[in-house]
Specification:
3 domains
Length: 387
């Protein structure tokens, strides 16, 4: 149903709103049945008459008994109506805002594409991620933070110090982390279903790195843990070089899920033939660096495995670890065959991840792009020794 107006300026503004939204020659209707008084109705008619006299609009009247009554108002000359209302066209506002967005910032080409799309949306009177031209300063701050992350300015800097150094506000990143992650996603591969804070943690932006949990025939520093070893050890990722392998493990296995990590130790490898590491879901940058150090202590002949959910996030975690260790990595209990046997179809749209054909997870990534692909949570599977 068409909107109807008792305020002439609201009616005229609505014509411009729909013009900016792409409507050709939009029309609007008065609401003759709800004028508060005869005085208000006269003021309404007078305002529209002045706008028509300026050449901005054309007024159409009814027929027969209603021939003196306004039927509808049509926009004729947007430029004249902008001037009549003292309103700046949204296209001009978008151009002014876009100049502020990029002033003095050397942006990655992927971010420049985003800015172009954003300005196009603003020129059509549409928002971008909930931001309009009036939010240009916020978007500029998000672009500054994003580019600084792409430039590596966040490495070895805590979350709030980074935000203060780049944006002059220690809490700016917390307020804008959603849009920052969306911008980063145009350039980097980020976990598809992760919350913004989790995605930033994988890049190294976190308050404190979570401990890394490791189980196997290992010692920590100068301590001999060969007698009555605990189920697993927890240590800060930066101290990975303090781990000592008493003997070469039969395998090294990283696991995404904490329950599956514990079950593997209790049910599958009570003898600690291999080394098993819990990576804490999406592996933080500190965890990725620690894995690189630990793998570097092992001979090339030691087989390396990773076990995650069979879903887009699981394959993203696999690829992240694979890139971090720079060694061949094999999927453990992660295959199209297992998905078909134990999985369920998902409402999640197929996700296309950049994955080279030589990656150990390539076949599963290709499978998950199919609309009928099935997902499996790793807790659904019983643990077993990697083959």
């Amino acid at each position: 149903m068409a909107r109807r107006f008792v305020d002439a300026r609201q009616l005229l503004s609505d014509l411009l709103d729909r013009h900016e939204g792409g409507a050709a020659s939009p029309i609007a209707h008065p609401d003759h049945t709800t004028f508060p008084s005869v005085v208000d109705a006269d003021a309404f008619l007078k305002e529209l008459g002045q706008a028509e006299h300026s050449g901005a609009i054309a007024i159409a009247r009814g027929r027969g008994a209603k021939r003196e009554e306004i039927s509808h108002v049509r926009l004729i000359a947007p430029d004249i109506l902008y001037s009549y209302l003292g309103r700046t066209p949204v296209s001009r506002l978008a151009e002014q805002a876009s100049a502020r967005l990029v002033e003095g910032i050397a942006l990655h080409p992927g971010l420049l594409d985003v800015v172009s799309n954003l300005v196009d949306a603003w020129k059509r009177a549409r928002s971008w991620s909930g931001f309009g031209p009036e939010d240009a300063n916020k978007v500029r701050t998000a672009l500054l933070l994003t580019q600084a992350i792409l430039d590596g300015c966040h490495i070895n800097v805590d979350y709030r110090t980074f935000s203060r150094r780049i944006a002059g506000d220690s809490k700016a990143l917390e307020r804008l982390e959603g849009v920052v992650v969306r911008l980063l996603g145009r350039v980097l591969d980020l976990p598809p279903e992760a919350r913004p804070r989790e995605a930033l943690r994988t890049l190294g932006l976190e308050r404190f790195a979570p401990p890394l949990l490791i189980a196997g025939r290992v010692d920590l520093g100068g301590a001999d843990l060969s007698r009555g070893p605990p189920l697993y050890l927890g240590f800060p990722p930066k101290d990975a070089d303090q781990i000592r392998f008493r003997e070469t493990p039969a395998y090294l296995l990283t696991i995404e899920n904490f329950a599956s990590f514990n079950r593997h130790l209790i049910e599958a490898d009570q003898q600690r033939l291999g080394t098993t590491i819990y990576v804490g879901g999406y592996p933080s940058l500190a965890t990725q660096q620690a894995l690189r150090v630990l793998v570097g202590m092992l001979p090339e002949s030691t087989p390396l495995f990773h076990w995650s959910d069979i879903d887009p996030d699981g394959t993203w975690i696999f690829r992240t670890i694979e890139r971090a260790i720079e060694r061949p990595l094999c999927p453990h209990l992660m295959s199209p065959g297992i998905a078909e046997s134990y999985g369920k179809t998902s409402s999640v749209k197929p996700h296309s991840m950049r994955c080279p054909v030589e990656s150990g997870i390539y076949r599963l990534v290709e499978y998950l792009t199919q609309p009928e692909a099935k997902f499996v949570e790793q807790e659904e599977l019983d643990p077993r020794i990697p083959v």
